[in-house]
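In the laboratory, one determines a bound structure by crystallizing the protein with its ligand and collecting diffraction data. In a computational setting the workflow is compressed into a single prediction: the sequence and the ligand go in, and a structural description comes out. We illustrate the idea with DQA.
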Amino acid sequence: MPRLLLLNGPNLNLLGTREPEIYGADTLEAIEERARECAREAGCELQSFQSNAEHALLERIHQAATEGVGCLIFNPGAFTHTSVALRDAVLAVHLPLIEVHLSNPHSREPFRHRSYFSDIAVGVITGFGALGYELAVRAAARHLARSPHTR
Ligand code: DQA
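The predicted complex, in structure-token form:
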């Protein structure tokens, strides 16, 4: 069964109470549960991991490569705009990446307009709130069904 890994970066553990006018009212736990359900419906298995620490995300990405994960779904939070290290980790493990954001960073402050991930992603989903994670799971399942070994 294809395996997906959902990664969330810093401050996303605070979803539900964190700037709900921007990020919505759903908790990360609820988002992860819906993503798992969506994956099941698409015939995939989904694991999830959130950390506020760059090194923990790096290690989880490295580990994914040894676990048979087929696709990464990643909301890197603020690391989107800063982390060459996380970008390099994604490139190093040769796993396809779908980048997700709850908000649309392009309609926000200029420092959010640059992403270190978009040009290495299969696709990017932004601005649809929690629904974006469900769309990402469906896109990941479709990508793996069509081209299981390509970025
Ligand atoms: C975010 C957008 C980032 O700019 C921000 O730092 C986040 C959340 C989003 O999901 O909209 O933490 O990735």
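The mean pLDDT is 96. Keep in mind that any predicted model is a hypothesis to be tested, not a measurement.
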